């Protein structure tokens, strides 16, 4: 159900992204709080079904807090963002490097986290870079990075091994020690980023992607790193992601490949 309201402060329309001006009449979805121009209502793919409030996700937490109860344990928000990017973003130059409008990124992240189970459709987000921004911001906002604080040193050490075969073996071993939700989500993201790296239009090779995702996925070994640690960690974070992306896709498919059809949101 939607209710018309008068806009008191200018806010972006959830469909077209342009600002709804002060005093104008807009429509707000009572379930997911999506705000849109009255003229954009027809383009809104679907309105939310009512759902219990207590199913909403926490605003922050470790990855497992957002994961489903059945394998593969990849949070629906991650699946939906990746699916949308693969559907219409693999021809965009600078995917994940070009920023989306920050206000829209935060608005959509809030909306998805508030929704919990049945997520509002991302097909109404005009700019695919906003969807990329939501995914990166969600991963950055976790209480600990995807590789976890406790395994952080092991990932860095494994990536430093000069012999390629020994490095691969060490990384596979450390990945297998991750909590199941972190491991499945990492596998899902690696398969996605490999697709991005193989798209000539995106111009985002493994090196570019590892620079973008190093700080996001690997982070630091504690919640409050010193400035010196941040400086020392940055090149090593990128190296970890680059080495992970050099592992064969079949290794990652072993975690999510067999149930891949369960991942696509309905």
UniProtKB/TrEMBL annotation:
Keywords (A to Z) from UniProt: Metal-binding, Zinc
GO terms of molecular function: GTPase activator activity; metal ion binding
Residue span, Phorbol-ester/DAG-type domain: 1-48
Domain Rho-GAP, first and last residues per copy: 61-252
Alphabetical list of SMART domains matching this protein: RhoGAP (SM00324)
Domain of life where this protein originates: Eukaryota
GO biological process, one term: mitotic spindle midzone assembly
InterPro entries cross-referenced by the UniProt entry: C1-like_sf (IPR046349), PKC_DAG/PE (IPR002219), Rho_GTPase_activation_prot (IPR008936), RhoGAP_dom (IPR000198)
GO cellular component: centralspindlin complex; cleavage furrow; midbody; nucleus; spindle midzone
Keyword Transferase: no
Full protein name: RGAP1 protein
Gene expressing this chain: Racgap1_1
